Amino acid sequence: MSRRATAVALALMLLLSPSVLADWAMFGRDDHHSGVADITERSIDRRKPVVSWDRGDEDPDDCSGALECEEVISWGSVIGNFSANVVGDYDRSVRHLAWVTAGQQDDEWHGYLEIFDGGLPVGSNLMWRRDLGRLEDANGNSLDSDFGSFETAFATPALGDFNGNGRLDVAAVTTSGKLHFFEPRIRWYSSSESYEGNGEAWTTWSNTTGLTVVRSNPAVTELDGGVDIVLSGLNLTTDKAVVMAFNGDGTRLWKFEADGTEVSSPVVLRQGSVSRKVFFSAWDEGSLKVFGIWGSGASSGSPLSDWGGADGKNVGQAADPGDGNLHPLLPSLVLADLTADSGTEVLVPRPAPDDESDARLLVYKENGDAASGWAGGYALDGGGDLDATPAVGDLDGDGDLDVVAVSWLDPGIGNGEETTVWAIGPDGLLLWKAEYDTSSSGGWDDDEHAIASPLLAVIDTVNGADNFDVLSCTTPECHVFSGPDGDPLWNVDLSIRNRDNSNRIFNSPAAADVDGDGLLDLVLDGGVWSADLADLVARDGDITITDEQGDSATEVVEGETLTFYPVTVRNEGNHDAQSVLIEVRLDDPANGALLYNETLATLSSNSVQTLESFDWTASIEGNYQVWVVCVADPDTNEEVRYDNNNGSRSLTVRPEHGAELSAADSTKNADPGGSATFSVILRNTGVANDNYTLDATLPDGWSGSWPANASNIASNATAELLVMVEVNASATAGEHVVTLVATLQDDTNTSFSLALKVNVSQYYGVALEMPVGAQRVLPDTWVSYPVRVSNTGNGPDVFDLYAFSDWSANIAVDGSPTSQITLNVGEIGVAELRVKAPADSGWNDMHNSSFTATSQGNSSANASVNASTSVGQLMALEPLRSALPGENASFPLQAMNLANTGDTLQLEVIEAPAGWELTLEPSSLPLAGRESGPAWLNLTVPHDATSGSSHELRLRASSGFGTDEVVLYAEVLPLSGLRLWPLEGTSDRYWLDGGQPGWLGLEVVNYETGTLEVTLANASLPAGWSITYDGDPDWSKSVPAGASSSLNVTVTPPQNAPAAQTTWLQITASSGTLQARFDANLTVNQQFGLDLALPDRFALLGNVSTAVKFNITNAGNGPDLLELNLSGDWIADEMQLLSLDPLETREIAVLTNPGLVEASTSSALSVSVRSLTAAEAGQTVAESGTLTLIASGLLPASAETLELAPGESGSFLLGMVALHSDGTLRLE
């Protein structure tokens, strides 16, 4: 928080507390004397304000004496809210002003404490007046001449709820030192909008100080827990400056005396909730001294040693207050967090030391040391003397507090005196200064002294809405300067309000929104100055509506004609309003039905105008608000505020027939199974007697009783109806609504209803189910026990979950560890009790664990279940699985060889539901010693399995170590909605011949509680395929709840469908948003055929590798996978797989070598080929043959035949091999 924000917050903490109830509670506004006004919604800005009212605006015939025309004779005014003190019908949203004025009584001048309404004009705004006695000092000497010469004034009144009863009190210190506390009793007359104006009080109390209090002001603060007051004055007998503290009941708390013949107003430093310090200055024999006093605690009233103890801190010379050329007023100290030093500093304004010198500003830390940047203080060079108390606030919006001081200088030429306004930053450097010279016609120097303290407020929002501007007043003018730069904004001349030598400005200004219009108002001397704007007002009380008989109308019969007159509107602002449109509307002031409008060319400031009379027929029953709205032309008017531009009156138009149901207590509490009784009032809102039939709508399962009729009910008469409701024993906790309906017997289409509410109390309950209560577990392994937690209470609940086990145990929900579970009414949640067997546990070691759930709503609602865990060589990782009929489920298993040497575990299912498809993988599991391995049991739930049933499966694991059994549980989930089941003989794959139909059987089952309109559709078959349902291309049927309908589905592929093509068939059954599907694969049958083309014999060179070639042909209509087998003495036996497209011929080359054999030696090559695709389809398609191979020593290596022309020659290329043992080759 910035220092500026801190200072404002500290001030507001006092000013806005319930014990203060004030906007400007004392001199300087707060007990720090900051001089800062609250920031209002809008401000005056740069248009010069005008006077709203002025108690000093008088011009008596005789102003020869100074007091005749002085309105305010206290050093300042205060602003507060006395609404709680008012007797009468009082609803004014304004603030109230208080000051002291003078009046003669038996040729003696008296002081009078007065309180004024901030928003009413002179003549009706005096609220309260109390005589404070003669103008005299503590010794009884008259002070009339001192008041007339500016040497004396009453202390500023102080506001606070001193006795703590909620009413605002005012404390006034007289010049003779009497401290009065008044709790004004103010009488208000709403009809004439005026106050009685006497001095009646709810209570008063007082104390006597023995001091003369003429140049100081009390501070309202908090010293000992209540609202207290601290004041200063002079003991003229002992020449002592005295400070006293009093609590709210007038009891003196402490007193401090110091040498001095002049004393300043005290300020109070509040630290935390208990520590308080009081500071003031005093003039003593040419020196200004500053004193610090403990304001609270055991040392209260004792001096602070940091500030010179009882002798005070001498801060330099100051001129004698009795010097005729200088005003004898000591400005007050100011407390603020100014500098970068920690804590609050004390700002000391030191007047000029003599007639020729200037004043100086000094700043000290709380311990009395000079603050950073202020070692020598700041000299107001050329500014002269200083009587006004400085103000402290943020002038430039930088978040730091700045100091504003006002000095005055008599230049010695003529009677004029100059005022200088100084703005000084927190570092002791000048921000700006501004001068102005005022001149009064009286010829007195003193009346131009700048005695009034400056005031800081957000006046001009153009230069920023978060920095303060400066107001300074010196007779007869008040000037405003821009906070950031000191530029003059405007000034007002109060001399035209008879303020000159005969009505001088020496009291300090105050500021707040005193008239409740949202804009800042300035309290200058005895008047209030406000923005120069119009303020259009329409008040509720200014709207008069009369019926056909001329009586005031608030409730009329449907169809009656009403007259609106008089309807008046007001301009309570200070500026005329032009072209004002007045609208009268129903219900909505902006968009409601327009009843009448009238335009006023001019609505003068502070005037009232009446609209022309007009009539309106109330044609529709109902309760209406009639609004009168002032709409000002925005191009020609600027208003102070807009939220008061409309007023309204309530108007009820009653029908011929009507009723209203009401209950003083329309909400009752009841227990489940209990009852609730309501007393309902039926009022006939029509104008004729009527009869009504009564009925009620109850929640399901509830019952009740009430009168059947209400007969002969006169207009506006009532009848009491007792409605008793019986609450269902199983009702859920919470609010339930019973609707009572009254129907006109003469018009059953007209009825009226009332909602009665029953809050059903909550009871608590919990149930636990552990489907698997015993399990086997491997050593050093976690095992999980699912637990179903049911909320058996009648309202939402949170259950604390606990596990009890010597083995490691915890609880989890949705896989995450937890200590609680939240369930709605009837909801079942699943938790897991997880137990871990110790690493050193042995076979058949057993341990019992428990699981407990306890309701947080009622700890007596709890339940427990137990689990038995034993160590074995096979365990189920998930012993409980759930599946819908027709779905698959898998149980993960874990096995372990508990022996130290290798072994094989044999797994088998020894118990299972009949007809279920089961697969246990593997059935044999070889494991090394202490080794673990996985296994699975997979199953398919038959589609006709009973929904909601639970089935036990038992597995056995056998090894050389021993035999274990594990129990598994399969739950069949309840079916709902719509299902398509295959009938017996129907599978998910079919083989079809092209152009030939295939058949499958389906069953449509309705698992809902009502009849379903079911339609079958297929969206998966390719073009050319056809499908029929019981011979029809479309199928739609009503299937009753719980029933099934069987049908035959025929699918026919096209004649030319490619062989071996597989097509996806998906049949969808639909009923509204419900759907079910059946899927199958359809494959077109393949025609198979093989051709093997082998030569009978084949000659080849001996001992030479030669490729023997032959052909194989796929004679079928689809691709085929062939298995080719070759065998013979001259080849390496082999098997090949060949993939052939339809009608494809493949040449096969087989490498042969007879070796060194005799010529003409022969050998057989055996060839066989078969179709594997045909074998998969259940057919045998194969071919085989034998080829004779003959070895030779001479074979042509090229063509064996030559064609030659006559005379042409040719040649043969021959291959020769010597096959004889002698190694010779003869060619013959």
From TrEMBL:
Gene3D superfamilies assigned to the protein according to its UniProt record, in alphabetical order: Immunoglobulins
Coiled-coil ranges per UniProt: none
Pfam families: CARDB (PF07705), NPCBM_assoc (PF10633)
Region (Disordered): 640-672
Domain Alpha-galactosidase NEW3 residues, every copy: 672-744, 995-1061
InterPro entries hit by this protein: A-galactase_NEW3 (IPR018905), CARDB (IPR011635), Ig-like_fold (IPR013783), Integrin_alpha_N (IPR028994)
Domain CARDB: 542-645
Protein name: CARDB domain-containing protein
Organism of derivation: marine metagenome
